[in-house]
């Protein structure tokens, strides 16, 4: 794809969202989703795009917001939601039901103009049904302009999109299997090594478990997974942090203060279950900013939230810290311990980035951190406090 065109689209969309974060569905369609369809190479002002496409659902009919056509045949359904709302599992099931009625539709996109979820009919002979294979947002598109490639008219017509989807599905399935059955798989590997090699000074069980972890990591690194690109910028703090980048040169900062008030279990966090939690990623090198400022920055904020949670990448791979939001201010008004340019490049400060300040004595380290499974936030994600309290892995909240 044309990287410059993608970045221009993202910049324009983010400007519109900042001016109107409570944008309704009709404005979302016209201002955000229609330009996205054009970006993918589908001519919005031709028969390639049909609005309010009728889908027969048994004895009744429903309408999907957009159908992208090849000739007279629909191949992609796009279901739009207002920018002011989140994408939900109910929305996904709705789109799946539409796709199920049209045998020619192998692709679905659910979007609110900020976040995008791709569904594909996967598996041999399509027996797996309509599966969510990838999610991404505007920030991720800005840092990896190739992300929407899978949805372009050229990729779908040429069959290249099917190849990408098949690889993603196979890799994701293998990662889930390794995650769910790691001890069982490691045990069988250990048994084979014991049978073949007999007694050795090595602990086969430990070595086998390390092997399974390494294999899972290798699969994540090898897959070109939309939403988990490692092409992002190397921010010490702020959004778009790539996980597990050993070649990243990081500036070491020794915090002059530590505002962590103590430890807390997630079930002991007080607040309404529907309160909004923004989950931000950070490398370990970004923690001094957190500790000494009792705040997080430099991030673009599109909506209000009540709490902040921090996912620590690299060696940790867990949601480890939690705090209650006090306010959101521009870096110049944040009263930071250091000059902003000691944390990030000056270019980052010129991009409408904000600092989220916490309530005094509200920053805690979690006694029961949320471990990584297969999803991690490359940019911030939202969940509810109720979901955060009960999450078993990152997949439950991302």
TrEMBL record:
Tree of life domain: Archaea
Region annotated Disordered, chain positions: 224-251
Pfam families for this protein: HSDR_N_2
Biased composition (Acidic residues): 230-251
Membrane spanning stretches: none
Domain called Type I restriction enzyme R protein N-terminal: residue spans: 28-126
Protein's recorded name: Type I restriction enzyme R protein N-terminal domain-containing protein
Organism from which the protein derives: Halobellus salinus
């Amino acid at each position: 794809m044309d990287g410059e065109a993608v970045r221009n689209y993202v910049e324009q969309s983010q400007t519109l969202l900042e001016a109107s974060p409570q944008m309704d569905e009709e404005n979302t369609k016209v201002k955000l989703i229609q330009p996205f369809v054009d970006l993918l190479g589908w001519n919005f002002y031709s028969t390639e795009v049909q609005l309010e496409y009728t889908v027969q659902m048994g004895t009744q009919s429903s309408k999907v917001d957009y159908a992208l056509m090849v000739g007279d045949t629909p191949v992609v359904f796009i279901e739009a939601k207002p920018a002011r709302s989140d994408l939900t599992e109910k929305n996904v099931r709705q789109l799946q039901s539409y796709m199920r009625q049209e045998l020619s539709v192998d692709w679905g996109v659910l979007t609110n103009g900020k976040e995008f979820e791709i569904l594909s009919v996967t598996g041999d002979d399509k027996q797996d049904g309509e599966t969510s294979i990838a999610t991404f947002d505007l920030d991720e598109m800005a840092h990896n302009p190739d992300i929407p490639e899978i949805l372009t008219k050229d990729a779908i017509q040429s069959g290249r999109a099917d190849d990408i989807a098949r690889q993603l599905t196979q890799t994701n399935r293998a990662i889930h299997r390794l995650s769910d059955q790691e001890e069982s798989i490691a045990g069988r590997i250990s048994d084979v090594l014991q049978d073949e090699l007999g007694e050795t000074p090595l602990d086969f069980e430990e070595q086998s478990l390390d092997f399974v972890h390494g294999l899972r990591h290798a699969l994540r690194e090898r897959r070109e997974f939309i939403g988990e690109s490692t092409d992002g910028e190397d921010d010490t703090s702020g959004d778009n942090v790539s996980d597990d980048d050993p070649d990243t040169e990081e500036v070491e900062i020794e915090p002059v203060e530590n505002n962590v008030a103590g430890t807390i279990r997630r079930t002991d966090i007080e607040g309404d279950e529907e309160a909004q939690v923004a989950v931000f990623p950070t490398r370990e090198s970004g923690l001094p900013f957190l500790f000494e400022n009792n705040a997080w920055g430099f991030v673009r904020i599109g909506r209000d939230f009540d709490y902040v949670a921090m996912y620590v990448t690299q060696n940790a791979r867990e949601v480890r810290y939690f705090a209650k939001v006090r306010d959101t201010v521009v870096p110049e008004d944040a009263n930071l311990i250091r000059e902003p340019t000691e944390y990030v490049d000056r270019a980052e400060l010129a991009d409408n980035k904000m600092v989220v300040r916490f309530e005094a004595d509200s920053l805690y380290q979690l006694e029961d951190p949320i471990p990584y499974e297969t999803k991690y936030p490359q940019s911030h994600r939202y969940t509810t406090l109720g979901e955060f309290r009960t999450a078993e892995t990152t997949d439950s909240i991302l």
